[in-house]
Amino acid sequence: MGWALAMQGGGGNIPRSLPPDITEPRLATLRRCLDLGAAALRAGQPAIYIYIYLSLMSPAALNADIYIMQVRELENCPHFNAGRGSVLTADGTVEMEACIMEGLTLRCGAETPHIYLAFHAAEAFARDQGLDTQDDDPAAYFITDANVERLRQEQEKQRQAAGSDRNGDSLQTGTVGCVAVDAAGGLASATSTGGHTNKWAGRIGDTPIVGAGTYANATCAVSATGVGEAIIRHTVARDVAAVMEHRGLDLKDAAARAVGLVAVSARGEVAMLHNTAGMFRACVTQDGHTEVAIWPPGEADSTDDAD
């Protein structure tokens, strides 16, 4: 069925009454990333290049000059809960998580002798690899007024409802993620997040955990969004692949068992499913199908185009 690309910008209790000044910047960023990804896949680039659109690795490391002016779209968009838009911990700090996985080789995570690197070691490794950093004044870049206010509101709600199991601001609980299958059938998944508002400092969610929030093999690639602890317990991303492999289900039937994700299969199928009010999402396929949406199909935000 050819190449395909799908992205998600987080799901949650997203009200249909959201004004355009909130929805449009997110949708516009998804559209830009979709165009970049489609151009790369159309030109025969491998699926693993999707990490460029999430700014998970320096484009210079690939000698891919064509991307230098087109990277960091999702993470640099302050409207998404990743990179610059990351929500704040209970301590008022930013702690981000990310993961990438290549399906054919099963390379994943930090792509060093170790799969996981965290905190100061991860920052040191990033600098050694030549990634751009915000060392001069990271607080000015990452800690936005909007997220300071979200933290204040969330902590006030927690004080008013002691013992609440709330999991953060519904407009910023999700990750950003991208999955792709290239023309040769190669699959890759990449996910990035700031976690959820008012989380404990040091909390690690599902996004960087291979098989939970991010997974790719020779069958499919999956990027999940939602409540991280539940996604970890149910190994959501790996479960989709396992059901396809062991029960012979197609991608959409397999993904429907664990909604809150975007996924593509080696055959070029796409699934973008959620069990919340909405999920920022986008996809494009080689046969010309394009979709950019928030709420269930058929509502005003959705766009389907055939080229």
Automatic annotation (TrEMBL):
One Pfam family cited in the UniProt record for this chain: Asparaginase_2
Question: Is Ribosomal protein one of the keywords UniProt gives this record?
Answer: no
Q: Which PANTHER family match?
A: L-ASPARAGINASE, N(4)-(BETA-N-ACETYLGLUCOSAMINYL)-L-ASPARAGINASE
Q: Could you say which EC number(s) this protein's record lists?
A: 3.4.19.5
The main enzyme category here is hydrolase
Q: What is this protein called?
A: beta-aspartyl-peptidase
> Quaternary structure per UniProt?
Heterotetramer of two alpha and two beta chains arranged as a dimer of alpha/beta heterodimers.
The record lists the organism as: Sorghum bicolor (Sorghum)
**Record keywords: Protease included?**
yes
The superkingdom of the source organism is Eukaryota
Q: Which GO terms describe its biological process?
A: proteolysis
Question: Where substrate is bound, by residue?
Answer: R203, I204, G205, D206, T225, G226, V227, G228
Keywords, A to Z?
Autocatalytic cleavage, Hydrolase, Protease
The catalytic activity, as recorded, is: Cleavage of a beta-linked Asp residue from the N-terminus of a polypeptide
